[in-house]
Amino acid sequence: MRKFLTILSLGLSMSFGAAYAADAATPAKPATAASAATPATPAAPEAKAVQQSKMAICNKEAGDKKGDERKAFMKNCLSAQAAAAAAPGTSGKTRQQTKMTTCNKEAGDKKLKGDERKAFMKSCLSNKG
Q1: Would you state the pLDDT for residue 119?
Q2: Are residues 121 and 106 in contact, defined by beta-carbon separation less than 8 angstroms?
Q3: Quick one: how far is CA 80 from the chain centroid?
Q4: What pTM was estimated for this model as a whole?
Q5: Tens digits of residue pLDDT in 24-70
Q6: How far apart are CA 126 and CA 26, in angstroms?
Q7: Number of Cβ atoms within 10 Å of the Cβ of 81
Q8: Rounded to 5, what percent of the chain is helix, strand, coil?
């Protein structure tokens, strides 16, 4: 009985070791046929990049706001940019033109004039997005 248990435990440990080695030797999951066939939908990564740029712009504008004030500002900022992006005359505009329009509107809403407006526009337009 003792010999049987020894052989059994030795056999199990060897089989588990072989299974572990097989897992470590196999490379990460290769691309399947389904994932290789999906490059026809580049809109998803592009939409993600657009959303990330919106978040970056709104985060920068939020500055030192905290708590509910920041949450309300971010909601308003993101929805305002979404509405501006979905507005009917903007589909033919380039990214720079859209950014210029958005920055101009924000400067107008803040009632900036002169050097303050110029500094704000420079900062707003230089945002990577």
Answers
A1: 92
A2: no
A3: 19
A4: 0.32
A5: 555 555 555 444 444 555 556 777 778 888 888 888 888 888 899 88
A6: 46
A7: 20
A8: 80, 0, 20
CB atoms within 10 A of CB 61: 15
Cα 45 from chain centroid? 9
Can you read off the two tokens belonging to residue 92? 């033919």
Q: How many CB atoms lie within 10 A of CB 110?
A: 11
The number of CA neighbours under 13 Å toward the Cβ of 28 is 1
Is 45 within 8 Å of 56 (Cβ atoms)?
no
**Triad 120, 121, 126: Cα angle to 5°:** 105
Q: CA 36 to CA 8: how far, in whole Å?
A: 45
What number is the average pLDDT over the span 85-106?
74
Structure tokens at 64: 């030192």
Dihedral sign (CA 27, 33, 34, 36): positive
Tokens read off for 77: 């900022």
